Amino acid sequence: MTTRSGTARAGQYLALVCYLVFLAFPLLWLVSTAFKSPQELGSVDASWLPHDPSLDSFTAAFGQQPLARSALNSLIVASCAAAISVAIAVPAAYVMVRYRSAVGKAATGWILVSQMFPFVLVIIPLFLVLKSLHLINSLTGLVLVYVVWNLPFALWMLQGYVRAVPASLEEAAAIDGCGRLRTLLSVVLPLLTPGLVATVMFSFVTAWNEFFFALVLLKSPEKQTMSVILTHFIGAEGAADLGPLAAAALMATLPSLLFFALLQRRLVSGIMSGAVKG
Amino acid sequence: MSVTAPGASARPKGAGTPPPRSAPERRRALGLDRDAWFLLLPALLPILLLSAGPLLYGISLAFTDAQSGRTAVTKFTGVANFADLRLDSLFWDSFKIGLVWAVSVTALQFLLALGLAVLLNQNLRFRWLARTLALVPWAMPEVVVGVMWRLVYNQDAGILNATLRDLHLISENVDWLAGVSLALPAVIVVGVWAGMPQTTVVLLAGLQNVPLELHEAAALDGASVWRRFRAVTWPALKPVVLAITALNFIWNFNSFGLVYVLTGGGPGGQTRLPMLFAYEEAFRYGQFGYAAAMGLVMVAVIAVLLAVFLRNRLKEDEQ
């Protein structure tokens, strides 16, 4: 009996290791490529580890494309989008949880339905609208788009957190003569803080990672975000300078990896409760 | 202000009714009072103006000859775009590729993620590390994922060819993303890789819903692992599976960035997903109306497929 479960255990660990290798090896390869010297990148034998680690690819990446500028653009767009979308989603999520209303139901329905439409159906009209507002090739236009694009998920996450706030506390506040707004600000909001942080970070990462809208709406290199600038490292014929490409890609993913590392546990539990209840 | 007034929690918990209000009953519309509208509108207006509005506008564009940068007035052309689409073999080629891609990525994602979720649900050592690692692809921008796999697949400097050569499985380096029969499977692997974390997390959540006592009872009765999975785990998991599979299918069918970066739709259109096709039609050739019609056809077909899928599954449940 013990040996049988022992083999089963070993099999489980083996399977787990296979999964983790599959999940981790492209990332390791990205890191390894980014730190290789130009000579080594040119050699025919690809090796797992850089023999002579160098930062040449990173300096080259900054020289080839306006990488610093694009990082700043990404930072501006993602922070503004995250801050605005969560700021307007909190009161809305609160109303959607605490009132049984047709509007709340319709909004929830819309969140689900909007997942179904291919972006191309939304981006063409958005392009035309933003063009008439002179917001094409502008970070403001992109922030607007990201705010709306982030809202459904922010609303969804926040509703879960609001539901966890005991209604009795609000009743107490109401008896004490607090209005809705006061109650929200002074009773609900403080209790919501951890969920709020998670939602802000998630919205930030989503906007930071986004590619399609940024590709369509931003034209000039000095306006483009990091994900768009990355594609410039790949030449017209698909040829690429591998070292700088890897270095730039690594830099583009660092903030979101960092946030995910910090956020991981809360995010998983948030999504789990959402999945189980929803 | 005392926050913990005793006796204030007399109301049944979890009911969605608002707490008692001290002020006289205010004006209400659609079940909301003035305060609620005030709190809801900042989110509602942007959604209406920049999501619902453009969507309706986009649908209407599908029935016009709208083009970018043209000075002539856009004309209503009825179903002309759809009539053209019907004969556009390139579009239907890409549509087929989109279906192959979406079905295989969704299916593989599900199978692999289920295995991983079951493993992560076991009481293994280093589980926290495995759980963290399993989330990594999720954190990465899709463009970075595309770039990263280009490096892996690279003909000369890629690790895949180097490894296969070391194992003596190939004698010459393969150009994975440029081979006509290899490109689609190669991008499908990347799609599976990129989407596994979400599916795993959702399935893991579902697994934690499975009643443990039932499992133990079945094990005591000598039920095999497979039987226990069929009889205990699967029924509890099914609703979650249904939801995540449907969503994954939609997301995969509409995906863009990964393949745009990996192959740009090549070689020779072998990996040109419908979204890549529509993007080029709209923003390279300026055919806004035509591209909008493509988008609409994509939604319609997806909706029909989902309806069939969900109805069959629900019927199964009733039996």
UniProtKB/TrEMBL annotation, chain A:
<feature type="transmembrane region" description="Helical">
    <location>
        <begin position="142"/>
        <end position="162"/>
    </location>
</feature>
<dbReference type="GO" id="GO:0005886">
    <property type="term" value="C:plasma membrane"/>
</dbReference>
<keyword id="KW-1133">Transmembrane helix</keyword>
<keyword id="KW-1003">Cell membrane</keyword>
<comment type="similarity">
    <text>Belongs to the binding-protein-dependent transport system permease family.</text>
</comment>
<feature type="transmembrane region" description="Helical">
    <location>
        <begin position="109"/>
        <end position="130"/>
    </location>
</feature>
<keyword id="KW-0813">Transport</keyword>
<dbReference type="InterPro" id="IPR035906">
    <property type="entry name" value="MetI-like_sf"/>
</dbReference>
<dbReference type="GO" id="GO:0055085">
    <property type="term" value="P:transmembrane transport"/>
</dbReference>
<dbReference type="InterPro" id="IPR000515">
    <property type="entry name" value="MetI-like"/>
</dbReference>
<feature type="domain" description="ABC transmembrane type-1">
    <location>
        <begin position="71"/>
        <end position="263"/>
    </location>
</feature>
<keyword id="KW-0812">Transmembrane</keyword>
<feature type="transmembrane region" description="Helical">
    <location>
        <begin position="75"/>
        <end position="97"/>
    </location>
</feature>
<dbReference type="InterPro" id="IPR050901">
    <property type="entry name" value="BP-dep_ABC_trans_perm"/>
</dbReference>
<feature type="transmembrane region" description="Helical">
    <location>
        <begin position="245"/>
        <end position="263"/>
    </location>
</feature>
<protein>
    <submittedName>
        <fullName>Carbohydrate ABC transporter permease</fullName>
    </submittedName>
</protein>
<feature type="transmembrane region" description="Helical">
    <location>
        <begin position="183"/>
        <end position="208"/>
    </location>
</feature>
<dbReference type="Pfam" id="PF00528">
    <property type="entry name" value="BPD_transp_1"/>
</dbReference>
<keyword id="KW-0472">Membrane</keyword>
<feature type="transmembrane region" description="Helical">
    <location>
        <begin position="12"/>
        <end position="31"/>
    </location>
</feature>
TrEMBL record, chain B:
<dbReference type="InterPro" id="IPR035906">
    <property type="entry name" value="MetI-like_sf"/>
</dbReference>
<comment type="similarity">
    <text>Belongs to the binding-protein-dependent transport system permease family.</text>
</comment>
<protein>
    <submittedName>
        <fullName>Sugar ABC transporter permease</fullName>
    </submittedName>
</protein>
<feature type="transmembrane region" description="Helical">
    <location>
        <begin position="173"/>
        <end position="194"/>
    </location>
</feature>
<dbReference type="GO" id="GO:0005886">
    <property type="term" value="C:plasma membrane"/>
</dbReference>
<keyword id="KW-0472">Membrane</keyword>
<feature type="transmembrane region" description="Helical">
    <location>
        <begin position="282"/>
        <end position="310"/>
    </location>
</feature>
<feature type="transmembrane region" description="Helical">
    <location>
        <begin position="36"/>
        <end position="59"/>
    </location>
</feature>
<dbReference type="Pfam" id="PF00528">
    <property type="entry name" value="BPD_transp_1"/>
</dbReference>
<dbReference type="GO" id="GO:0055085">
    <property type="term" value="P:transmembrane transport"/>
</dbReference>
<dbReference type="InterPro" id="IPR000515">
    <property type="entry name" value="MetI-like"/>
</dbReference>
<feature type="transmembrane region" description="Helical">
    <location>
        <begin position="99"/>
        <end position="120"/>
    </location>
</feature>
<keyword id="KW-0813">Transport</keyword>
<feature type="transmembrane region" description="Helical">
    <location>
        <begin position="132"/>
        <end position="153"/>
    </location>
</feature>
<feature type="region of interest" description="Disordered">
    <location>
        <begin position="1"/>
        <end position="26"/>
    </location>
</feature>
<feature type="domain" description="ABC transmembrane type-1">
    <location>
        <begin position="95"/>
        <end position="309"/>
    </location>
</feature>
<feature type="transmembrane region" description="Helical">
    <location>
        <begin position="240"/>
        <end position="262"/>
    </location>
</feature>
<keyword id="KW-1003">Cell membrane</keyword>
<keyword id="KW-0812">Transmembrane</keyword>
<keyword id="KW-1133">Transmembrane helix</keyword>
